[in-house]
From TrEMBL:
Details of cofactor binding: Binds 1 [4Fe-4S] cluster per heterodimer. The cluster is bound at the heterodimer interface by residues from both subunits.
Subunit and partners: Protochlorophyllide reductase is composed of three subunits; BchL, BchN and BchB. Forms a heterotetramer of two BchB and two BchN subunits.
Catalysed reactions, semicolon-separated: chlorophyllide a + oxidized 2[4Fe-4S]-[ferredoxin] + 2 ADP + 2 phosphate = protochlorophyllide a + reduced 2[4Fe-4S]-[ferredoxin] + 2 ATP + 2 H2O
Protein name per its UniProtKB record: Light-independent protochlorophyllide reductase subunit N
Organism from which the protein derives: Flavimaricola marinus
Binding sites annotated in the UniProt record for [4Fe-4S] cluster: 28, 53, 114
Residues covered by the Nitrogenase/oxidoreductase component domain: 28-385
Stored Pfam families: Oxidored_nitro (PF00148)
Enzyme Commission designation: 1.3.7.7
Name of the gene this protein is made from: bchN
GO molecular function terms attached to this record: 4 iron, 4 sulfur cluster binding; ATP binding; metal ion binding; oxidoreductase activity, acting on iron-sulfur proteins as donors; oxidoreductase activity, acting on the CH-CH group of donors, iron-sulfur protein as acceptor
């Protein structure tokens, strides 16, 4: 089925990994609410936190003051922090008010934050108590989005992992696709799988709780996002089996991801080719056009989203770039291994972060493009380095064939901008 082969030099799966444990520069896991609340149409995310948490979510989501999004913050006041109020009573009161106002809520997530973690509010206990009271109409779960406990994309991982234990049991032979995708991208993926004859496909998260998402011993699951380590473990505990594959970024990654599923479900080479040949050709053409400014350029990844390894594989193999360092907050062999197999040997692979040490390496390397968080981008730009905001790669549709050119374009634009600025300065 034209599955891509590992490079002759053996890839990076067995390469030495630089493990760093120091100060890190990433958003907290609350940020995942911004895309999850749009995906899950009957869910509400109630953050038990401070005004800072509320301002973060409000500004990150760009929600106007008169909008009514599917998230909010139960703000901890001075009496809460001083232990003068009963936190459990207060949570019950806020939840009752919320459910009375929003009867459309079917899933309510109590989300821990740095303040609630520090003063040790037991949100798990609250979720169990409230879920028993409001079942079966509302399912109440909890997870931590605290910056103490989680980094940027781990918020989604924690949210999905807390859902897995309460998914219905099923004996059906099915494919479960795990990871939040924009609706248009999910529809494209489901269309490709249906065209291959694979129709028993469910998604986690689903748009609504009353969907048919279940899990059991005949469930096989494919991850659409590389940052779902806890969810991966939770699904395996439920008896589901993981289909390891590169992440579906670009032509090669998408084809390999679909190939793993097609092999599992007995799709013939002829059918696989008939379904994928045309979109593959479109993807290759779009990548070639968008990567004109990328060929021969170098790239340096700070650890941020756990997308770094599959993106490095895409950029080096399909866009002609050279990776100097590929940093990731965490490296999970069962998830990142297939991409590491394909990533050409050479870059420093690093896990975790000691930001000052990594900044020194980035400055010494002076890569043509540095992928990093918002807090590091402006200072590095001031030093003459072209940068790419890592957060944009999570918020932008980048999966599968039809988005492959857009994905390459996200990296080429900063380099084109820098070239234009140089030309203007020369004039």
């Amino acid at each position: 089925m034209n599955a891509p082969l590992a490079p002759a030099n053996g890839g990076c799966r067995t390469a030495p990994v630089l493990k760093e444990r120091g100060q890190r520069e990433v958003f907290c896991g609350l940020t995942g609410i911004i895309w999850l609340h749009r995906k899950m149409q009957d869910a509400f995310f109630l953050v038990v936190g401070s005004r800072t948490c509320a301002h973060l979510l409000q500004s990150a989501a760009g929600v106007m003051i008169f909008a009514e999004p599917r998230f909010g913050t139960a703000i901890l006041e001075e009496t809460d922090l001083a232990g003068m109020a009963d936190a459990q009573v207060e949570i019950d009161r806020v939840v009752e008010q919320l459910l009375a106002r929003r009867p459309d809520i079917r899933q309510l997530f109590l989300v821990g934050s740095c303040p609630s973690e520090v003063i040790k509010i037991d949100l798990h206990k609250a979720a169990e108590r409230l879920s028993a009271k409001h079942a079966p109409h509302v399912r109440i779960l909890n997870y931590s989005g605290s910056g103490i406990e989680t980094t940027f994309t781990e918020g989604e991982d924690a949210a999905l992992a807390c859902m897995v234990p309460v998914l219905p049991e099923t004996d059906a032979r099915q494919l479960l696709v795990v990871g939040a995708l924009p609706d248009v991208v999910e529809d494209q993926m489901l269309g490709l799988l249906k065209a291959m004859g694979i129709e028993t496909v469910t998604c986690l998260p689903a748009q609504r709780i009353d969907g048919e998402t279940g899990v059991g011993p005949n469930t096989v699951f494919a991850l659409a996002q590389p940052f779902l380590g806890e969810t991966h473990a939770a699904l395996e505990r439920r008896g589901a089996r993981h289909l390891p594959a590169p992440m579906p970024f670009g032509d090669e990654g998408t084809t390999a991801w679909l190939h793993a599923i097609a092999t599992e479900f007995g799709v013939s080479e002829e059918v696989f080719a008939a379904v994928t040949d045309a979109p593959r050709a479109r993807a290759r053409k779009a990548i070639a056009q968008a990567s004109e400014h990328l060929r021969g350029k170098s790239i340096f990844f700070f650890p941020d989203s756990q997308l770094e390894i599959p993106l490095a594989r895409f950029l080096t193999r399909e866009c002609g770039m050279t990776a100097i360092e590929v940093g990731s907050p965490y490296i999970h062999d069962a998830i990142h291994g297939p991409d590491l197999d394909l990533l050409p040997a050479g870059p420093q692979i690093s896990e975790g972060q000691d930001v000052e040490k990594q900044l020194d390496r980035a400055r010494a390397a002076r890569a043509d493009l540095t992928v990093c968080g918002l807090g590091l981008a402006n200072p590095l730009e001031a030093e003459g380095l072209a940068t790419k905001w890592a957060i944009e790669l999570v918020f932008t549709p980048v999966h599968f064939y039809e988005q492959a050119g857009d994905l390459a374009g996200l990296f080429s634009r900063p380099l084109r901008r820098k070239s234009l600025l140089k030309l203007e300065a020369a004039e």
